[in-house]
Amino acid sequence: MTKSPGRRVGVLGGTFDPIHIGHLRSALEVAEGLTLDELRLMPNARPPHRDTPQVSAQDRLEMVRCAVAGVPMLSVDARELARDTPSYTIETLELMRAEMAASDQLFLLLGWDAFCGLPSWHRWEELLQHCHILVLQRPDADVEPPDALRNLLAARSVSDPQALAGPAGNIAFVWQTPLAVSATQIRQLLASGKSVRFLVPDAVLAYIDAHNLYRAPN
Ligand code: ATP
């Protein structure tokens, strides 16, 4: 394979309420498997009234920072939290692109469910002008796409994610078995006074404990 001249940058958005080992293993496996230079975890802004009680956007961000500290390929991109309302992905990608060289490759990571919802996204048909899309899919999943995406997949998908060439424009599937952990489960464990050790990195656990997050009020 000829080495692409540009940097290879991935981006994974999420609520990260809190970040856990499922997110981190998935991110690391994509970064290693696709030889990315950097994979940015991007916490999403939510309207302030939708934040979990006791847990602010700043806390979610700090936990992501704790999680990636010392992990060379993973980083944090806080730009969507600079606003307190949700950002459109297309606008985030435009901003990222403006900071990158024209030959740099940008990869947007999306779970299958998010990918299927694409046709409802603001200016969704422009997304591939700025990035490639990596669809994270379970090996055992059924992959019948919605009708609105059939033509796009036929025109833009490539079977080998390693073969994605150029800065943007194609779609590839990445098959991964996700770890059976969710942020919902972690919030529930904490609210019932149980431990989440080994479900989140130790540094994240220390942050949760120090700030008394997600626990039921005494
Ligand atoms: P919640 O339980 O609050 O819905 P979550 O654990 O699903 O949260 P999100 O912040 O919503 O976490 O997820 C961000 C991204 O990470 C999404 O694309 C989601 O599909 C993916 N993701 C969530 N859990 C896992 C997991 N265990 N393994 C791999 N990817 C995951």
From TrEMBL:
Keyword vocabulary terms for this entry: ATP-binding, NAD, Nucleotide-binding, Nucleotidyltransferase, Pyridine nucleotide biosynthesis, Transferase
Broadest EC class assigned to this enzyme: transferase
Transferase keyword on record: yes
EC number of this enzyme: 2.7.7.18
InterPro entries given in the database record: Cyt_trans-like (IPR004821), NadD/NMNAT (IPR005248), Rossmann-like_a/b/a_fold (IPR014729)
GO biological process, one term: NAD+ biosynthetic process
Keyword Transferase: yes
Gene Ontology MF terms in the entry: ATP binding; nicotinate-nucleotide adenylyltransferase activity
Catalyzed reactions per annotation: nicotinate beta-D-ribonucleotide + ATP + H(+) = deamido-NAD(+) + diphosphate
The Cytidyltransferase-like domain, residue ranges: 11-188
Known pathway: Cofactor biosynthesis; NAD(+) biosynthesis; deamido-NAD(+) from nicotinate D-ribonucleotide: step 1/1
Role of this protein: Catalyzes the reversible adenylation of nicotinate mononucleotide (NaMN) to nicotinic acid adenine dinucleotide (NaAD).
HAMAP family: NaMN_adenylyltr
Family under the similarity heading: Belongs to the NadD family.
PANTHER family assigned: NICOTINATE-NUCLEOTIDE ADENYLYLTRANSFERASE-RELATED, PHOSPHOPANTETHEINE ADENYLYLTRANSFERASE
Name of the molecule in the record: Probable nicotinate-nucleotide adenylyltransferase
